[in-house]
Specification:
Strand order of the largest sheet: 2-1-4-5-6-3-7
Shape: globular
Mean pLDDT: 84
Number of helices: 10
CATH topology of the largest domain: Rossmann fold
Largest sheet: 7 strands, mixed
Helix content: 40-55%
Strand content: 5-15%
Length: 284
């Protein structure tokens, strides 16, 4: 019996499989941009051509935190010793905005001095792979994780501890780690209480959890603001937009807006100004 030639069929199957397979990611090039997002699935640094950020001059009410973080970032960019930083506190108070603004301020004064690399918190277990990749480059990298926190069943904090300080490899000399969190110890209070109540040695159990934040040499606290500071932020944004409205009307609307939101923060002020600018037909 003659056997049919299956070569054409197999060729068509191979072509179909290739068509449905995702293309390999392009090679990583730290010179391609000043900011990247770590795509852990493909071990790829995705370039970010335009960063979503606010100018550092518009960040009001956090002057001390701004000056400390900017000084630390400038030292790192200059090749001097600098600390990993944890920015913790109330939501919407400018933590992540300050990190991105500090990166922009340093690069404005010294172009291409720093690369900003964002890693998502769910990708923290892949941090050692990312650090090995960044260590191969010549540029100094500011590694940034926004809203970093850990659940009771999450063991990722252990790998982060080893990478920041204490592990054999540790952190490469050209990488600095900045994180923001709503909690100073990045873990819910009930999680730490549970560890304390069920452990043979409660103090050691709590120390295991708390010691992660100790890996950050710089702690910057961000707290809820008073009305005066909130209105100063509103005025700063209004001036940046060039809004043509009376200050008294603007303040009255801003206070009402903050009351409906139940909080006063830089984020709430920005959202309010976006609303006012849209109603007035103004663009940034």
């Amino acid at each position: 019996m003659d056997h049919p030639d299956l070569s054409p069929l197999l060729q068509r199957i191979a072509v179909a499989l290739e068509r449905h397979s995702p293309p390999p990611p392009p090679p990583n090039d730290l010179n391609a941009a000043d900011a990247f997002v770590w795509q852990a699935e493909g071990d790829w640094l995705e370039p970010v051509p335009v960063i979503n950020r606010v100018d550092i001059a518009l960040l009001k009410g956090i002057d001390q935190q701004r000056d400390i973080l900017l000084s630390n970032t400038r030292r790192f960019a200059s090749g001097l010793p600098a600390n990993n930083a944890l920015l913790w506190g109330a939501r919407g108070t400018g933590k992540s905005s300050l990190v991105k603004a500090a990166h922009a301020a340093v690069n404005t004064k010294t172009p291409r001095a720093l690369v900003l690399v964002e890693i998502h918190r769910e990708d923290i277990p892949t941090l050692p792979r990312l650090l090995r990749l960044l260590a191969q480059g010549q540029r100094r990298c500011l590694l940034f994780c926004d809203d970093l926190s850990f659940a009771a069943t999450d063991e990722g904090y252990k790998s982060l501890k080893a990478v920041l300080e204490g592990g054999l490899q540790g952190r490469p000399g050209n990488v600095l780690f900045y994180a923001t969190s709503n909690r100073r110890h990045m873990m819910p209070r009930e999680m730490m209480d549970n560890e304390s109540s069920t452990a043979i040695n409660p103090n050691e159990a709590v120390e295991e959890k708390v010691s992660l934040s100790d890996r950050f040499g710089l702690w910057l606290g961000f707290h809820n603001m008073d009305q005066t500071t909130f209105l100063a932020i509103v005025d700063g944004y209004a001036d940046a937009f060039g809004l043509k409205t009376s200050k008294s009307d603007l303040h009255a609307q801003a206070i009402e807006w903050s009351m409906t939101r139940g909080s006063r923060s830089g984020r709430v002020a920005w959202q309010f100004i976006q609303d006012v600018a849209g109603r007035l037909g103004e663009t940034s």
